[in-house]
Amino acid sequence: MNLVIVDYKAGNVQSVLFALERLGVQATLSSDFETIKAADKVIFPGVGEASSAMAQLRVRNLDKLLPTLEQPFFGVCLGMQLLCDHSEEGDTDMLGIIPLPVKRFQTDLKVPHMGWNQLEKLQSPLFTGIAEGEYAYYVHSFYVPLSKYTIAQTSYPEPFSAALQYKNFYAAQFHPEKSGPAGSQIIKNFLAL
Amino acid sequence: MLTKRIIPCLDIKNGRTVKGVRFENIRDAGDPVELAKWYAEQGADELVFLDITATNEERKTFAELVRDIARHIDIPFTVGGGISAVADVEVLLMAGADKVSINSAAIRNPQLVEDLTLRFGSQCVTMAIDTKYTEATGWKVYARAGTVETEHATVDWARRVVDLGAGEILLTSMNNDGTKAGFALDITKAVSEAVSVPVIASGGAGTMQHFADAFQIAHADAALAASLFHFRELGIPDLKRFLKAEGIAVRV
Known about the structure:
The complex is a heterodimer of chains A (193) and B (252). With 193 residues, chain A is an alpha/beta fold. Chain A contains 6 helices and 13 strands. Chain A is 23% helix and 28% strand. By secondary structure, chain B is an alpha/beta fold. Chain B has helices at residues 32-42, 56-72, 86-94, 104-108, 111-120, 154-163, 185-194, 208-216, 227-230, 236-245, and strands at 5-13, 16-17, 47-51, 77-80, 99-102, 125-134, 138-143, 148-153, 168-173, 199-202, 222-225. Chain B has 10 helices and 11 strands. Helices cover 38% and strands 24% of the residues of chain B. Chain B has a single domain (5-245), classed as TIM Barrel (Alpha-Beta Barrel), CATH 3.20.20.70. Chain A binds chain B through residues 11-12, 14-15, 18-19, 21-22, 47-49, 109-118, 135, 137-141, 155-156, 175, 177-181, 183-184, and chain B through 1-5, 40, 45-46, 67, 70-72, 74-76, 93-96, 98, 118, 120-124, 167-168, 196-199, 221-222, 251.
């Protein structure tokens, strides 16, 4: 399988590469238009701040390419938020692939939402073999509300989208590459789509 | 529900764990990667690795070790010790660390906190605060591995670094560290209530009840210990079962 990880200087690229390596999967790191377009599957990692990430994508013309992709695509953490329309983080226009907003947590609880929290209402082949209530590792201050594209949810304290699917675009707000054996299973499930 | 985190801390010197760690089930307990894998299997929620070496040459070894750790463990980890510039952090994050902890360098130059959060995001900047109480001064922040008293009152300093963008506070009470008499509940609670970001309690863990107190009384979001875990005085599975029975949300 020709698996490509989108390279736009996102902080967790190395962790995603290592997670794939632990599964015995080779991946190509690339920001090249043709290489990404030719991939069988694409993983889109991301940590950090929304407007700087969008700037990095624009510099590489990836803001034009990514919405046109048709192969299975997996956005992780900020990589999920970037697929949406707009983020309250820096009042940023995102890629506009999934017609959803990204909002800041308004809660008395600690922000960032950091640590292990539970995945609920799992409804996608992405979660084959994953039990309701399984734990995943999160670290984020912005979230995507529940929607018809939500395929898993987590509560903090209100439920939000733990994962999304819109056509060929899958996405997770948590970090499967840092979520122990369950996280590895979710990556495997994506690779098997 | 978001769970409280249990975090073993490993001191690293020349690429090896120190403190004479004793484990029966581990081939080489001096090997940080072996030990980290074992802790991950035991249910540790995160790990912290502190580089206690001094020279630049040794620091290069540490970055290689960070890469090796990231390659082999599938839970988040923070690295710290001697970080003084944006370039140091870039090397460690690119090697696969999830967060870095900074301490003395931010006291010398608070702007570093803002520079790091703008560059890498708040979520990967943990501010380590070493604090000590005396009747004359109250709780003060100490620099340089706890050897130098600063002018900063602890709660004020915590608020300031969070305003600058720090995404987490690792609060170590020097009064309690090594005593096994429990975490410093008063200052941990004061800091936790003063800032909007998660707070890790550190220093003084001796019993399972101490962890419960850190979470229930001091409202810590995570608790860190070193020798208690390394010397197997307390097992993480037992600790988590105890906390769960106490009604505390933990990942088991």
